Amino acid sequence: MAAIEAYFGRIDILVNSAGVDADNPSARGLSLKQWDRAMQLNVHGSILCTKHVIAAMERSGGGSIVNVLSLCSMNDEREDAADHVAKAALRSANMNAMKYASRNIRINSVHPGVVRPPALAAAMREQGDLIQMLTDRAELRTLAGSGSATDVAAGILYLVSNASRFVTGSELVIDAGSGRNYQRGC
């Protein structure tokens, strides 16, 4: 953190956006190695970054932290236990927002539904079931079209900008309304 502060003069923004798209079985098939990987990547990394950035933000008079979670952190029926629990743990960590509000540090989260990241095209070629899953979910959206990483980035940009200066402890769901219609997993 000291090197970042020395180079930029201060730290105003932290976006915790970590995740792994791997074989995440249900609780029955979950190995300790898979569990540890999900917790290390999602929870430990984000919490440690937040811890150190908060100290820097306190020194400079405030800032904005955004945790990129998942629509699945709000849904208790997802099958891949480790990823679901990790994202839900970070969602709980967002409740710390009020502890830092008096220090002008805002903590919010975005919860994307299914979006089409660039890497998804290759996965779709390899996994026919994924194509059907996305097609099925697209029918449940209330807005036309499919979401993209740009849509998620726009939500993050809002939360780190001065336009959201009065927003903390909030969860911005970016899913074209599918979370309202689809309650059986993500």
Q: What string, H for helix and E for strand, traces the elements in order?
A: HEHEHHEEHHEHEH
Q: If you compute it from the alpha carbons, what radius of gyration comes out, rounded to the nearest whole angstrom?
A: 17 Å
CATH homologous superfamily descriptor: NAD(P)-binding Rossmann-like Domain
CATH class: Alpha Beta
Shape label: globular
Order of adjacent strands in the largest pleated sheet: 1-2-3-6
Number of domains: 1
Q: Give the number of DSSP strands.
A: 6
Structural class: alpha/beta
Task: Provide the β-strand percentage band.
Answer: 5-15%
Characterization of the model:
- This protein is of the alpha/beta class.
- The protein has one domain: 3-Layer(aba) Sandwich (Rossmann fold), CATH 3.40.50.
- Helix content is 47%, strand content 14%.
- It has eight helices and six strands.
- The strands form two sheets. Strands 1-2-3-6 form a four-stranded parallel β-sheet, sandwiched between helices. It has a two-stranded parallel sheet with strand order 4-5.
- Strand 1, helix 2 (32-60) and strand 2 (63-68) form a beta-alpha-beta unit.
- Helix 2 packs parallel to helix 3 and helix 5 (120-126) packs across helix 6 (128-138).
- The termini are far apart.
- The mean pLDDT is 80.
